[in-house]
Amino acid sequence: MNSLITSDITTSADKALTNPWKGAEAIHFFLLCQRQLYQKEYNKAMKTAMRLLEYEKELGTKEVYSIVAVSCFFNQCFRECSKAFVKLERLPELTEKEREKYELLAIQLFSRNPPIDRRTAMLKCPKNSCQAKISEFDTSCKECGSHFSPCIASG
After folding, report:
1. Whether residue 15 has pLDDT greater than 50
2. Torsion over CA of 65, 70, 74 and 77, rounded to 10 degrees?
3. What are phi and psi of 134, to 5 degrees?
4. Which of 48, 57, 76, 149 could form a disulfide with 33 if both were Cys (CB 3.0 to 4.6 A apart)?
């Protein structure tokens, strides 16, 4: 099956085909993040939500940044939550009323919680030749560009 899909993608004339598994992964991580939020596993939920940024095209910008904002808020990472709100407030398809609701909610949240992340674990980049420090929520290294594969079970 995989070789047939890969063959279709590489031989397609219009290149409109993308990896069909990417959509399945997107839905899986989206549902996993929601489950982690309901189970009050906020650190795991934020890690999964940050992974969802790679699936913006498949899930939609509004859905991705909404769950990122919620996950970051409950994990007390208000800087990342603020970034998600900025992205949500700037969506071109929003009505003026929706934009005002996002702005009002952001004011309420960040007047009580300054946009500062709680202290997060910093780790060494897993690539042997890179000495950069990465956050536990990073999905790639900003120094060497290494991409970190997700755990399908935990996000």
Report:
1. no
2. 20
3. -125, 155
4. 48
Query: Do 85 and 66 contact (CB within 8 A), yes or no?
Result: no
Q: Phi and psi (nearest 5°) for 113?
A: -130, 105
Burial zone of 15 (CB within 10 Å; 0-12 exposed, 13-18 middle, 19+ buried)? exposed
E strand or H helix that includes residue 8: helix 2-11
The token duo for 78 is 């208000």
pTM comes to 0.78
Q: How long, in residues, is the chain?
A: 155
Tokens of 47: 């890690």
- Give CA 118 to chain center in angstroms: 18
pLDDT tens readout for residues 21-73: 888 889 999 999 999 999 999 999 999 999 999 999 999 999 999 999 999 99
Are the beta carbons of 142 and 23 closer than 8 angstroms?
Answer: no
- Give the count of alpha carbons within 13 A of 2, CB side only: 2
Per-residue pLDDT tens over the stretch 76-124 = 999 999 999 999 999 999 999 999 999 999 999 989 988 887 777 777 7
